């Protein structure tokens, strides 16, 4: 008869242990889920940063190539310009693809920024790069900037 008196006592203590184990398991599972979400977010952010750096480098290369060619008239200085023109669309496509996985409001905001960037780049190509490259090819040079003339005149 003593056995039935012990079973409720043991059962109550086991139930507490099982309940504690269940709480720990749920907490660990929730923590693992959050860790996975944060890892995915971090990887996406890293991909965006790499693509943004690529966009920045492509734009700087284009500007440097035009500047080098205009200053020297040598075709070898156009290499960064050509390289920038080639890789810029790839980086913009990567950013567009990454924006596709964002919530609608953020996606639209990022896509608008990319459209604005492309518009400004086209304007720069049409208003600055193409005319300067054409002038240089035709042998037409611009006078040096005033600050350069001033520095030279005062030395």
Written overview of the protein:
By secondary structure, the chain is mainly alpha-helical. Helices cover 86% and strands 0% of the residues. It has helices at 2-72, 79-99, 104-137, 146-153. α1 packs antiparallel against α2 and α1 (2-72) runs parallel beside α3. Mean pLDDT is 86; it is low at 146-152.
Describe the SSE topology.
Layout: H1 2-72, H2 79-99, H3 104-137, H4 146-153
Helix pairs in contact: 1-2, 1-3, 2-3
Structural class by SSE content = mainly alpha
The level of helicity is: over 70%
How are helices and strands ordered from N to C? HHHH
How many DSSP-defined strands? Answer: 0
In round numbers, the mean pLDDT is 86
- Backbone CA Rg: 32 Å
Tally of separate helices: 4
Oligomer: single chain
Largest sheet: none
End-to-end C-alpha gap: 113 Å
Task: Give a summary of the structure in a few sentences.
The protein contains four helices and no strands. The chain has helices at residues 2-72, 79-99, 104-137, 146-153.
Name the features.
155 residues, mainly alpha, 86% helix, rod-shaped
């Amino acid at each position: 008869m003593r056995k039935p008196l012990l079973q409720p006592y043991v059962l109550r203590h086991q139930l507490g242990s099982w309940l504690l184990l269940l709480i720990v398991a749920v907490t660990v599972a929730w923590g693992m889920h959050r860790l996975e979400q944060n890892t995915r977010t971090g990887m996406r952010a890293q991909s965006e940063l790499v693509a943004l750096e690529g966009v920045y480098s492509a734009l700087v290369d284009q500007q440097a190539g035009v500047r080098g060619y205009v200053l020297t008239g040598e075709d070898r200085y156009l290499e960064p310009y050509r390289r920038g023109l080639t890789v810029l669309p790839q980086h913009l496509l990567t950013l567009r693809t990454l924006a596709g996985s964002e919530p609608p409001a953020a996606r639209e905001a990022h896509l608008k920024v990319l459209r604005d960037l492309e518009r400004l780049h086209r304007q720069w190509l049409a208003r600055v790069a193409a005319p300067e490259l054409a002038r240089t090819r035709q042998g037409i040079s611009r006078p040096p900037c005033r600050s350069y003339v001033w520095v030279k005149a005062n030395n």
